[in-house]
């Protein structure tokens, strides 16, 4: 019966943690700027604080391992895995294994970024046509000149005598139409 109690403790904690993360993130995103992921940042920081506090507190106040499974592994595992990463890095540091702690911190972030990039790239390759996979800079460089803003040809300075080059939009976006840039340099 003991394994099923552990399964239940983990499951209930995970359900509560996932819901806490989702609803807190939804609520926060209504009030903060979308320019920075404040909800994720807050969840990661609060989860890190919670795992530090609750791991120590539960070891003294509620020594039953199923309560630790429910709260620390289940709830906080569903709430954020960043808290576990931060706690384990701190434990390595406190044990004097500074090299391993730094390796865990730097390696997890660096390798995590690489893994996310590879995952995104593979998913895009498998699910999107090549034209949609192009990065924003690729689309801007390859965009037809008709969609580019008109450029002013002439010296910078007073607006007297400046002409707008409307003929530059005749290229096909495949390397032609760069004459508007070369015109200024070669006309003198």
The number of distinct structural domains comes to 3
If you compute it from the alpha carbons, what radius of gyration comes out, rounded to the nearest whole angstrom?
28 Å
Average pLDDT works out at 77
Largest sheet, spatial ordering of strands: 1-2
Shape: globular
Q: With helices defined by DSSP (H or I, 4 residues minimum), what is the helix count? A: 8
Low-confidence stretches: 161-188
**Structural class by helix and strand composition:** mainly alpha
Listing every helix as H and every strand as E from the N terminus to the C terminus, the arrangement reads: HHHHHHHEEH
Query: What is the share of helical residues?
Result: 55-70%
Q: What does the largest sheet look like?
A: 2 strands, antiparallel
The separation of the N and C termini measures: 90 Å
* Oligomeric organization of the protein chains: single chain
In total, how many beta strands?
2
Strand content: under 5%
How is the secondary structure organized here?
Layout: H1 2-29, H2 38-61, H3 65-79, H4 82-94, H5 98-127, H6 130-133, H7 136-142, E1 152-153, E2 163-164, H8 179-186
Antiparallel strand pairs: 1-2
Helix pairs in contact: 1-2, 1-3, 2-3, 2-4, 4-5
